[in-house]
Amino acid sequence: MRSRFGAALLAALVGATVLSGCTNDDDACARAFETAALAVDEVATANFSCTSGFEHGSQGGVITLSVDSEDQALPVIEKVYRGFASSGELDDAWTADADFFLKNADTANHEEIIDDSALGIEDDPLIFTLRDRYGIRPPDVD
Q: How far apart are CA 44 and CA 38, in angstroms?
């Protein structure tokens, strides 16, 4: 009886530790994306969320640019993608899933999402894909 209780308690403690680690990792992931995006001068706001999963995690965000037109936005989006590629805090397998908005857009209604396909980048590229595209390999990434 005592050994079953001990085993159950150990399993519960390990499970709680693993789950709490996911939350910390999720917060670190979101901060890493936000930090990389906000390092670009023309980015007004960046809000990301990340969720861990045993098989799949997800990353997603909303980035508002401080520019007025899509023509002005495309070079800024390119800078953001380069920033993601340069960040040693972002994992190769994570997805740069971001919706980009002009500065006066109604983000709640997803109005004026900027189409970044003109950059020739696949929809929601992996960080690895961005690093490969730009030839960037941060020194602190294996």
A: 7
d(CA 83, CA 15): 35
- Give the residue from 59, 47, 66 showing the smallest Cα distance to 114: 66
Domain 27-134 falls in which CATH fold? Alpha-Beta Plaits (3.30.70)
Strand partners, 100: 63
**CB-count exposure of residue 47 (10 Å: 0-12, 13-18, 19+):** middle
* Per-residue pLDDT tens digits for 4-26: 544 443 344 334 333 333 457 89
Counted residue by residue, the chain has a size of 142
pTM for the model stands at 0.78
